[in-house]
Each structure stands twice: as structure tokens, then as C-alpha cells.
């Protein structure tokens, strides 16, 4: 069977399905090819399930602190089966929501594995999509005017450190644990590593983090890494930086796994029930037919121009498969840029310095724009405002006083170059900083925006005042 479309999207994750909805709004006849479930990594193996587990861990940890709030809870216990059921029901509800949106937008969904064909009897240009249907039905042939590749990414591991799903887990495996281990070694102290470290520790698991770099979350501002390390250590986690993991030393026994790492030149052995590997994700570009096109792949990622166009001008690529910031909100934004461009409009290209990044650990971390080091390297003369949550009334009310907001501004123009946050609910508070960056606001403008009292948002106004040494509650 063959069908013609204005647009076929390979992959129905956050990037792909959002692109499909915008395409349908613009009147394009659109189809999605999805090999697994609509919603992709974000809904089924990433953002949503991990945040659902993190929330259960937070509730559990808070319940144990109940007496601090005058709420005596005699015996707090964890029902991990229920935790997993809650996570799964959230996923199911959102999955149904996406299926409804596809029907509403009259977007055809093909459940199967899609491959890009080269020039063929169907089209003189590469881009016809052959779909190997998952239910064993006859292959479908889709003939689109345009294609968007939105195939996402998958967890990667270190050379010689094989993920076996039993002793050595990827983040995909960890999400499906039926019971919690007593102890875990996490290889990688980046975004995934830290979210899992925080969650497992709040669930009562003994956690050791082995991070190769000299600090946790190395892409964040140095002050954030330092505060994170301090707070995680306070929670009882073991943090080892400058740790070069030696995969060949791995030993598995009945219930435990041991692995060594070279730390400051000395080999140290670490033992736990499981190892969780969180050292990044690699683009899903295998077997999708790229060899039938002129599309360029570099460092394992599809190369695109600012409008997400590949070397084949009618084939676009968005999201994790093009590298850069591997974030769901980046993928969906790129999807919209690509579709608007296909429709003949002139969307603004994505500016990485306007993209907020969030880590949903306890404490939460969020940032947008340049770190202090990046801004200095770019040649800016800086003024910096920093304000602690400890001096914010609502933080005391919440019983979460650790952390701060740091604003990096340009001394000459007063522009805000970056905002870095660690502490309660900063993954929500960062949107104000994002808007400030988009509107090119100055610290003065943030400070003069009236922030309701008592709210955590007051920390932004105070940090903005602190840029010019005028914080009120300092
Ligand atoms: P990452 O790049 O954030 O972190 C990987 C960490 O592993 C780095 O700190 C790196 O220094 C360390 N590392 C690399 N090799 C190592 C080794 N041999 N031994 C020890 N440490 C080593 O990657 P990730 O945490 O796997 O996340 C993958 C992607 O998914 C990222 O782009 C991330 O932004 C995205 N993601 C985002 C969210 C979110 O937005 N909250 C959540 C999960 C994942």
C-alpha cells in the first residue's frame, strides 16, 4: 500500500508528536511512524516516569520528617509496588492524551519501524518511507513531500561495561525495578546520575556516585556543583569525583557487584547490589536509511542548519538525534521550527542561551544562559547577584532553606547573561529567568516586577537587587 503526505515524521516522541500537531494546525497532511509507543523516551522512559518516582521519593522523605511540622507519623513505610503503579498510571493517562490529540489533528499513526528509501519508483528524490508494520501486516509505503527525523536517543555505556539488566543497569532498566536494591553505584554524576542518586537516597538506598570530572553536573555553574555536592553529602550520599571507572575490574557475585575506579591515581574498589550507568545518551540513527541520502552524520549525530534542515533540504531532523541539548522541550521547540519552515514561514532559530535546563533532584537545579566561567571566557565584565533561600520566608515555611539563586549580568550593558538556581521548586522558578532572557530584561526590571509575598519567587527579585548590592533581606 502507498500513501501520499505533505509530511511524514519518523518518531512519535515529544519532538515528533508536537511537530505533527503544529503541521496539522497549518493544514499539512501528516503522518507519524512510531516503532514503539507515542510519547517516546520522555513519556515512557525519561522525564515523566523518573519525575513520578522522584515525587514518591520526596513524599516518603518528607513523611519521615513529619514531626518537624508537628505531624507525627508513627511508622512510615514504602510500598514500592504502589510507587511503580502510580508511575505507570500517570504514563497511561498521558499516553491516552497524546493518542486523542493525534485523532483530533487527523494525524495518521503507523505503528512500525520506518526507513528512508533512496530515489525509487515512488519518487526521484530520497525520502520515501517504508514502514515495517509491527503487527506483521504488509509493509506500508509512505510518499511524503517532507520528512522530519525525530528518532531520539538511547542510553549509552562505557566500552567494556556491558549493561546486563541485572547487575549493571541503564536508566531504562532502573525505571522497571520491581524492588529497591539496598545499595547502588552510579557511574556518572550528570543529569540522570544525580536525579537517580537523589531519588534512590530518598528511598533509603545507599548511594555512591562515581563521576569522571572534578565536579558533579559539570555543565552547570561551578557554585551550583559545589552546593549540590555539599547537600548530597549532607543527605548521606558518597560522592567520588575525578573517578576513572575501570570496567575490566567488574566482578559479579550472588547478590553484589564490585567495580574499581582510579581516583587521584589510586585504584579503589566499590561494591553494591547494582551499578547504574548514566554517562550520556547516543542518537538513534541506525537502520533508518541515512545511507540512502546525502544527510551528513558527525560524532554520531545528524547535522542540520538553524532551521533543522539536513543536507537534503526536504528532510529535517530534530531532538536528541541531532545532539546539542538533549532535552524534551528543545526537541518540541525544534519540531515547531522545522514545521513552520516547511510551511514557508520564517521561524526564529533556537538560541541555546535561552533554553532553561532543569535537574529534578532534591535539591532541584535549574539554569538558563551563561555560567560565570562561560561569560568570563566570552569577554564580558561581570556583576553577580546571589541570594540564599534561607532568607526567604516561604522557604522557611516549606522547611526547605538550602540553596540560592545566582544572576550573572553584564557590567557594561546591564543585560542578564545567565541565571543559576539550586533549591526548592527552582525548576518552576526558572521560567521567570527564561522570560527575562527572551525580553532582554535587566536585573533592575526583574527587581521592579512586584513579586507576591510570601512566595519562593521573591528569591529572584532579591538576587536581582543583589546584582547592584541592594538586596533587602541580605
Ligand atoms: P550527562 O552528559 O548529563 O552526564 C554524564 C556524566 O557522566 C557527566 O557528568 C560525565 O562527566 C560523566 N562521565 C562520562 N564518562 C564517565 C566515566 N567513564 N566515569 C564516570 N563518569 C563519567 O548525561 P546523562 O546524565 O546520561 O543524561 C543524558 C542526556 O539526557 C543529557 O543531555 C541530559 O540533559 C538529558 N536528560 C535531561 C533530563 C532533565 O532535563 N531533567 C533528565 C534526564 C536526562
UniProtKB/TrEMBL annotation:
Alphabetical list of PROSITE patterns matching this protein: PYRIDINE_REDOX_1
GO MF terms held by the record: dihydrolipoyl dehydrogenase (NADH) activity
Cofactors, names only: FAD
Native source organism of the sequence: Bacillus chungangensis
InterPro entries, per database record: Class-I_Pyr_Nuc-Dis_Oxidored, FAD/NAD-bd_sf, FAD/NAD-binding_dom, FAD/NAD-linked_Rdtase_dimer_sf, Lipoamide_DH, Pyr_nuc-diS_OxRdtase, Pyr_nucl-diS_OxRdtase_dimer, Pyr_OxRdtase_I_AS
Family note: Belongs to the class-I pyridine nucleotide-disulfide oxidoreductase family.
Enzyme Commission designation: 1.8.1.4
Localization per Swiss-Prot or TrEMBL: Cytoplasm
Keyword Oxidoreductase listed: yes
Major location category of this protein: cytoplasm
NCBIfam families membership: lipoamide_DH
Alphabetic keyword roster: Cytoplasm, Disulfide bond, FAD, Flavoprotein, NAD, Oxidoreductase, Redox-active center
Annotated FAD/NAD(P)-binding domain residues: 5-335
Keyword Disulfide bond: yes
Cofactor notes: Binds 1 FAD per subunit.
Source domain of life: Bacteria
Organismal lineage: Bacteria, Bacillati, Bacillota, Bacilli, Bacillales
Protein name: Dihydrolipoyl dehydrogenase
Pfam families, alphabetized: Pyr_redox_2, Pyr_redox_dim
Further remark: The active site is a redox-active disulfide bond.
Amino acid at each position: 500500500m502507498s500513501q501520499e503526505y505533505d509530511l511524514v515524521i519518523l518518531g512519535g516522541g515529544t519532538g515528533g508528536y508536537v511537530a505533527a500537531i503544529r503541521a496539522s494546525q497549518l493544514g499539512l497532511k501528516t503522518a507519524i511512524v512510531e516503532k514503539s509507543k507515542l510519547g517516546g523516551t520522555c513519556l515512557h522512559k525519561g522525564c515523566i516516569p523518573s519525575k513520578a518516582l522522584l515525587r514518591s521519593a520526596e513524599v516518603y522523605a518528607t513523611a519521615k520528617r513529619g514531626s518537624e511540622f508537628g505531624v507525627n507519623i508513627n511508622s512510615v513505610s514504602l510500598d514500592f509496588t504502589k510507587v511503580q503503579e502510580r508511575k505507570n498510571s500517570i504514563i497511561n493517562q498521558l499516553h491516552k492524551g497524546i493518542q486523542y490529540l493525534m485523532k483530533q489533528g487527523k494525524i495518521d499513526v503507523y505503528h512500525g519501524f520506518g526507513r528512508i528509501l533512496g530515489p525509487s519508483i515512488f519518487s526521484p528524490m530520497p525520502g520515501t518511507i517504508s514502514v515495517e508494520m509491527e503487527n506483521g501486516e504488509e509493509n506500508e509505503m509512505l510518499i511524503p513531500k517532507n520528512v522530519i527525523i525525530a528518532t531520539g536517543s538511547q542510553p549509552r555505556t562505557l566500552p567494556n561495561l556491558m549493561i546486563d539488566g541485572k547487575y549493571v543497569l541503564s536508566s531504562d532498566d532502573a525505571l522497571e525495578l520491581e524492588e529497591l536494591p539496598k545499595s547502588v553505584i552510579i557511574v556518572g554524576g550528570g543529569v540522570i546520575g544525580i536525579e537517580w542518586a537523589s531519588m534512590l537516597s530518598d528511598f533509603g538506598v545507599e548511594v555512591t556516585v562515581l563521576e569522571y570530572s572534578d565536579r558533579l553536573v559539570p555543565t552547570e555553574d561551578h557554585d551550583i556543583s559545589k552546593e549540590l555536592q555539599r547537600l548530597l553529602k549532607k543527605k548521606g550520599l558518597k560522592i567520588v569525583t575525578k573517578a576513572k571507572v575501570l570496567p575490566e575490574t567488574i566482578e559479579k557475585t550472588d547478590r553484589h557487584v564490585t567495580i574499581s575506579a582510579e581516583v587521584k591515581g589510586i585504584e579503589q574498589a566499590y561494591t553494591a547490589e547494582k551499578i547504574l550507568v548514566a554517562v550520556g545518551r547516543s542518537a538513534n540513527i541506525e537502520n533508518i536509511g541515512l545511507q540512502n541520502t546525502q544527510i551528513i552524520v558527525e560524532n554520531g549525530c545528524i547535522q542540520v542548519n538553524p532551521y533543522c534542515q539536513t543536507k537534503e533540504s526536504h528532510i529535517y531532523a530534530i531532538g536528541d538525534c541531532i545532539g546539542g541539548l538533549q532535552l524534551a522541550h528543545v526537541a518540541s521547540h525544534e519540531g515547531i521550527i522545522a514545521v513552520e519552515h516547511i510551511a514557508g514561514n520564517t521561524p526564529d532559530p533556537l538560541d541555546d542561551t535561552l533554553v532553561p535546563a532543569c535537574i529534578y533532584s532534591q535539591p532541584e537545579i535549574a539554569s538558563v544562559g551563561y555560567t560565570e566561567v562561560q561569560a568570563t571566557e566570552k569577554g564580558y565584565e561581570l556583576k553577580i547577584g546571589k541570594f540564599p533561600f534561607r532568607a526567604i520566608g516561604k522557604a522557611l515555611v516549606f522547611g526547605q532553606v538550602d540553596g540560592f539563586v545566582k544572576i550573572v549580568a553584564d557590567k557594561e550593558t546591564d543585560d542578564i547573561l545567565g541565571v543559576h538556581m539550586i533549591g526548592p521548586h527552582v525548576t518552576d522558578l526558572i521560567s521567570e529567568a527564561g522570560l527575562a532572557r527572551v525580553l532582554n530584561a535587566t536585573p533592575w526590571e526583574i527587581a521592579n516586577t512586584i513579586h507576591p509575598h510570601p512566595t519562593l519567587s521573591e528569591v529572584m527579585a532579591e538576587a536581582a537587587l543583589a546584582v547592584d548590592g541592594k538586596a533587602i533581606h541580605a
